[in-house]
Amino acid sequence: MSNIDNSQGILPCPFCQARVAIPLADILAGRPSLCNSCGAEFSVNHSESSDGLSKLRQWYQTVQRQVANVEQQGGEINSPSKPTPEQSLDHHPYQKRQRRPRRD
Questions:
Q1: Beta-strand (E) ranges in 1-104?
Q2: How confident is the model at residue 1 (pLDDT cuts 50, 70, 90)?
Q3: What are the C-alpha distances in Å from 67 to residues 26, 38, 47, 79, 81?
Q4: Coil, strand or helix: which one is 25?
Q5: What's the chain's Rg over C-alpha atoms?
Q6: Which residues pair with 94 in a beta bridge?
């Protein structure tokens, strides 16, 4: 698994607004995420976010190919840096799901 596979986006929980780190692969696949703060389960609404998700998917696939090429040539890839608040995905619509009890 390359380092790009570990990349995460930061989204606010639609219930409590806590910042939730979500793997980009999960966002693109539409897998639900779980807020560690309030226990809510949610996912990005793909129908309302199709343009942004299409661009994210293109970027993700391009970087995956570039990483594979570098690794194939024996190079090393450093871990990607965390996104700044300006680069995070704070304003994407969500599909709210049922709340789960918080696990302490």
A1: 8-12, 19-23, 33-34, 40-44, 94-99
A2: very low
A3: 19, 36, 29, 11, 15
A4: helix
A5: 15
A6: 44
CA distance 71 to 65: 10
pLDDT at 8: 83
Residue 75 is classified by DSSP as -
3-state secondary structure of 26: helix
Tokens read off for 73: 């040539």
- Say which DSSP state 83 is in: P
Cβ atoms of 9 and 24 within 8 Å: the answer is: yes
Q: What is the pLDDT of residues 18-71, one digit of tens each?
A: 999 998 888 888 899 999 999 999 988 888 888 988 998 898 888 888 888 888
pLDDT in tens, 77-92: 555 555 555 555 545 5
**Which structure tokens are listed for 15?**
């219930």
Domain borders along the chain are: 3-99
